[in-house]
Specification:
Helices cover 77% and strands 0% of the residues. By secondary structure, the protein is an all-alpha fold. It has one domain.
């Protein structure tokens, strides 16, 4: 699985490189950075599962994973940047944005799968679903913070008090909840589809890590 993800990621980079060379511009170069951020939760989740993290290590690594998880969803909002940018044809930019968004989302969904395998060891099935719903909505809220409020994952360290204050203020605004639930629950539904496909193919978590 890792090799396939790497191959698809390199394909996205080649598309962007081809666009840069053809257009002699750096339009959409931000997609590379956003995809890098989207891959971080996947790398953390596979590390946690493969190393069988426990106790304090599991807690702090899971927190870091949660902080970066919204990046996998965030890149979908980059679709708003699409517009005709000559001399590159529209169909190519559609493919470029779709490719980056899809692989970023896949990184997030697979990281969710890995973390759910860890979660199964500690809680009941009912509580497991409750936690997944909660995490999904938090991820949706994280997308809102990034897209609408322009916060970054590392602001929790560099500017924690302002971030916390903004979160408290935003938590009382209905459309923020609507945004968070739409993105979060859509992500959760897609996760359940991916999880079902993995189980259907009888692919174990160990195979996914390799």
């Amino acid at each position: 699985m890792k090799k396939n993800l790497l191959l698809v990621t390199l394909t996205c980079f080649l598309l962007e490189a081809g666009r840069i060379i053809y257009s002699n511009s750096l339009d959409y170069i931000f997609l590379i950075w956003n995809l890098f951020l989207a891959a971080i939760p996947y790398l953390i989740a596979t590390h946690i599962q493969s190393r069988n993290a426990k106790g304090y290590n599991l807690v702090w690594q899971s927190i870091v994973w949660l902080l970066f998880l919204p990046n996998s969803l965030y890149i979908i909002t980059d679709l708003k940047h699409f517009r005709e940018r000559t001399p590159v044809p529209e169909w190519f930019d559609c493919l470029l944005l779709f490719s980056f968004s899809t692989i970023a989302l896949l990184f997030g969904l697979l990281s969710f799968y890995h973390m759910n395998q860890v979660l199964k060891k500690y809680v009941s099935k009912t509580m497991q679903h409750v936690i997944l719903i909660f995490i999904s909505i938090i991820a949706g809220f994280g997308v809102y913070l990034g897209r609408e409020e322009r916060w970054n994952s590392w602001d929790i360290i560099t500017n924690p008090f302002s971030l916390l204050s903004d979160c408290i203020t935003l938590s009382g605004i209905p459309h923020v909840w609507l945004f968070s639930m739409c993105y979060g629950l859509s992500f959760l539904f897609m996760y359940y589809i991916i999880s079902s496909l993995i189980n259907l193919n009888h692919e174990t978590p160990k195979q996914l890590v390799q």
